[in-house]
Each structure stands twice: as structure tokens, then as C-alpha cells.
Amino acid sequence: MHDHPAPGALPAATLSDAMDRFGAVEGIRPLWRGAALSGPAFTVWTRPGDNKGLHAAFETIRRGEILVVNGGGDTTRAVIGELIVQKAKALEVGGIVLDAAARDVAELEELGVPVFARAVTPAGPWKNGPYRVGEPIAVGGVPVHPGDWVVGDDDGVTVVPRARIAETVAAAEQLIAGEAERRAANQRLVPRD
């Protein structure tokens, strides 16, 4: 499916560092500690507060893809909740990243589909459209094209452009090796009297 090494479980922060600190999505956090995702982006651009496009996405999204939604940063209406995430789980979607709000947090955590969002609100969505599926979008100030690699963990979300995946993984692995050396050096420090 992919002709390059995938970022896999590399940390979001390290991947951003490996891209000269670009690619880190602003203001979007996991809805619970330990939520983590890694996979190719499936993009949706929707009108703020409206989730008709998310329902449309489930007609074509593939197993393991990350549903990435530009909802205009709106935090007044939740564009996902328990019922839509049940669909995502049944289709084995790799996770959801919303530049928008979510609700039903306890139920989402129980379902186990990793969800990252700008906010949480009990207010439900509109279902009128319009929307775009499978087009380039922006999420938290970062451009996202279909197939770009999306990684999310406790620190947030980083997007790696598809054309830069191999070089970013290599650079991230070098950074991790350098950090291991610095950690070892820190362990050898001795307090002064």
C-alpha cells in the first residue's frame, strides 16, 4: 500500500523536530491520555459545526486511514460523538483528528478509536453541508493532503508530507539516537557540593 517506511510509533514531537519543527498541529489535543494514532490522512473539509461530510467520508475511507477534518476550528458544535465513532470502529479507521469539537468523551475512550480535537462541547452538529472529501485541507495551521502521514500522541499531532516520509523517518531516528546519548550523559552527572 505504501512505498516508503512509515513513521509508525515515532513520537509526534520528534517527527516535527526532524522537519525543522514544522508539521506540528496547533491547538488539537488527544481527548484522553494514551490516545495514539499513526496512518495516512483521509481528508474532509466541512462547514463549521456540520458533520454531513464526515458521514460521507465513511462511504470510502479505508482501514487504517486517519480521518482528518477541517471544521474551521469551530468549538461551538461537536461534529463527532459516540454514534459516528462506532462507525469508525466498525470500519477499522485508524483515528480521527478534528479542527473542530467532539462530545461523548467517556464513550469515545471506551470505544478505543483515538480522537484528537480542538475542544469538547455537548452541543450537537448540523447536518446540512456543504463539504469536500479527499481534497487538500488545513488543520491547526498545517496543510494536509490525502495520503500525508498523521501521527498523534499525548503531545498532540504532527503531519508528515507524503513526499517527505522517508527522509523524515531517517532524520527522526537520528534524533532519537542523539537523545539516547544525551540521556546516558545526564545519568552520569554528579551533584556538586
SSE blueprint and pairings:
Layout: H1 12-18, E1 29-30, E2 37-46, H2 52-57, E3 66-70, E4 78-80, H3 82-90, E5 95-102, H4 105-111, E6 115-120, E7 131-133, E8 137-139, E9 142-144, E10 149-153, E11 156-160, H5 165-187
Parallel strand pairs: 2-3, 3-5, 4-5, 5-6
Antiparallel strand pairs: 1-6, 2-7, 2-10, 8-9, 10-11
Helix pairs in contact: 1-5, 3-4
Number of helices: 5
Distance between the termini: 59 Å
CATH fold-level topology: Glucose Oxidase, domain 1
Dominant shape: globular
CATH architecture title: 3-Layer(bba) Sandwich
- Content of β-strand: 25-35%
Give the total of domains.
1
**Overall helicity:** 25-40%
Task: Give a short account of the largest sheet.
Answer: 9 strands, mixed
**Derived structural class:** alpha/beta
What is the CATH superfamily label? Answer: Ribonuclease E inhibitor RraA/RraA-like
> Which CATH class is shown?
Alpha Beta
SSE pattern, N- to C-terminal: HEEHEEHEHEEEEEEH
Uncertain stretches of 5 or more adjacent residues:
none
Rg, Å, rounded: 18 Å
Q: How many strands? A: 11
